[in-house]
Specification:
- The protein has about 260 residues and is mainly α.
- The protein is built from ten helices and two strands.
- It has two domains: about 170 residues, no CATH class; about 80 residues.
- Strands 1-2 form a two-stranded antiparallel ribbon.
- A hairpin with a 2-residue loop joins strand 1 and strand 2.
- The chain is flat and about 70 Å long.
- The mean pLDDT is about 80.
Length: about 260
């Protein structure tokens, strides 16, 4: 639980930290779209190299990225078991009693794992290099054109930024409750199924109470500061695109075009 790093901002002095949040969000979206094109291992290798370059440029450690990937390992194991049971095409790689492992099952799981790894690398790099306030301003500016069809751009941006901001706080609160329950003799890791379910309930109930209390405190604080949804607001900080932001968008667009070309070829 403590390994989840999504939503954690890491204050470092790097070029990516200084970039416009709108450029980083649009670049992330283009790379995300690129990931889902069937560009083969060559395409995934190019995307992986680009993601590693972005991480190194942002001065983030790969250990930090690995912590974001670890909670997904159980899901990958589950997907591998499902693919092994229901995918019966390709060459036979392994036979163990009634279970037969086919090559297509292995390759499908590898494709899913690589795509998931790339998505986590890109999103973690975005949230670790962008302040929550800058993220809100960037999302709001990108959604501005949709206000003509009555899309509440500011409210949506505020919701997304609050959700990202409170992910680390909820994780810390969960760890605190787990330690408190363990000190009272509650075993969350061992025991029978029903005992573990009851132990998890003893964790979920206080976590929900704490989350609702945080939400109420935040709402009261926003009301005390005069926040009114839907009202026209002014800004102290104005976003401005620079050359490095356009270079980032150009690189992301080239990656997207390259993945489309590889998938068609």
């Amino acid at each position: 639980m403590g390994n989840i790093t999504l939503g954690r901002y890491i204050p470092l002095d790097s070029v990516i930290h200084k970039m416009d949040p709108r450029a980083k969000i649009m670049a992330m979206l283009m790379v995300m779209i690129s990931i889902f094109f069937p560009a083969g291992w060559l395409g995934y290798g190019i995307l992986f190299a680009a993601a590693c370059t972005a991480i190194i440029t942002a001065k983030l450690s790969f250990t930090f990225i690995w912590k974001a990937m670890k909670p997904m390992l159980m899901m990958l194991v589950f997907l591998f078991i499902i693919n092994m049971m229901f995918t019966k095409t390709g060459t036979v790689l392994l036979t163990a009693g009634p279970f037969v492992l086919y090559s297509d099952a292995l390759f499908q799981t590898l494709y899913i794992a690589v795509r998931l790894l790339l998505m986590i690398m890109i999103t973690t790099c975005l949230t670790a290099t962008t302040k929550p306030l800058d993220m809100t301003l960037g999302i709001e500016d990108l959604l501005k054109p949709f206000e003509k069809i009555h899309v509440p751009a500011h409210e949506i941006a505020m919701l997304i930024s609050i959700a990202l901001r409170f992910i680390p706080d909820l994780i810390d609160e969960t760890m605190r409750i787990m330690r408190a329950q363990e000190s009272r003799g509650v075993d969350l890791k061992e025991g029978k199924i029903m005992e573990r379910i009851m132990a998890i309930l003893s964790l979920i109930v206080p976590l929900f109470v704490s989350a609702f209390q945080r939400a109420e405190d935040l709402a009261n604080a926003m009301e005390a500061r005069g926040y009114a949804p839907g009202e026209k607001r002014t800004r102290y900080k104005m976003l401005k695109m620079e050359l490095r932001d356009y270079v980032l968008l150009l690189i992301a667009a080239l990656l997207l075009a390259g993945m489309i070309w590889l998938s068609v070829k």
